[in-house]
């Protein structure tokens, strides 16, 4: 479902601020893979997601989604392939629009749009059905402005919006990092339910090692723009946070993970 071939991304090339963010990275995700991605600050995690989403263009290498070469496609041309949830709950929704209006926009992602704007009763019934699955009592608040909701409620709605129309790939960029622990746990529960129900191929960045171990069928560790560990199957099931820290320290020549990873 996702194939990255020898991708490199360099920021400020040829200057004193040159930074190799992604270094000849290759990665393949099979249909239905749920991959968690961990690594210290500056490891290249968010840059990788931005390259996949089209926010950045690679300097070298190719990116394929479901067999389609998207390497040079702009971000809006990849919308029909990708659903994305950001760290900031404010980013994924339009605060001044109603819940149903936000969902209607998401429902049109990647489709040809006409001149009319209307939400049918059939649409509303569909949105209510989706919202009821969140168990947050939002299905009765379709005409509530999204900006009046809590961060957790907004992230839950953003997850629904990102997964509508069954995207080829779901990208989660530390989507619980800005939430309190209780709300983060709820959003993660919703995430797992949506991914499993819709059978979505998913790439999730997290600083929380416990979550990285517990969630998904595969774990990737990054350092200095490279994938240094790719763990799946029984090996992943048997992982512990202590083992993961040892692996990171070994790969980083004794330079342990940053505070966010340790606290996570």
Can you describe what's shown?
With about 260 residues, this protein is α/β, with parallel strands linked by helices. It has a single domain (about 1-95, about 150-264), classed as 3-Layer(aba) Sandwich (Rossmann fold). Helix content is about 35%, strand content about 25%. It has helices at about 45-55, 100-105, 120-130, 150-165, 180-200, 210-215, 235, 240-250, 260-264; strands spanning about 1-10, 20-30, 35-40, 60-65, 70, 80-85, 170-175, 200-205, 220-225, 225-230. Strands 6-7-8-3-9-10 form a six-stranded mixed β-sheet, with helices on both faces. A four-stranded antiparallel β-sheet has the order 2-1-4-5, with helices on one face. A hairpin with a 7-residue loop joins strand 1 (about 1-10) and strand 2 (about 20-30). Helix 2 runs parallel beside helix 4 and helix 4 (about 150-165) runs parallel beside helix 5. The chain is globular, with a radius of gyration of 19 Å.
What is the element layout, followed by pairings?
Elements: E1 2-11, E2 19-29, E3 34-38, H1 45-53, E4 60-65, E5 68-69, E6 82-85, H2 99-107, H3 121-132, H4 151-163, E7 169-173, H5 181-198, E8 202-205, H6 209-214, E9 218-223, E10 226-232, H7 233-237, H8 241-251, H9 259-263
Parallel strand pairs: 3-8, 3-9, 6-7, 7-8
Antiparallel strand pairs: 1-2, 1-4, 4-5, 9-10
Helix pairs in contact: 2-4, 4-5
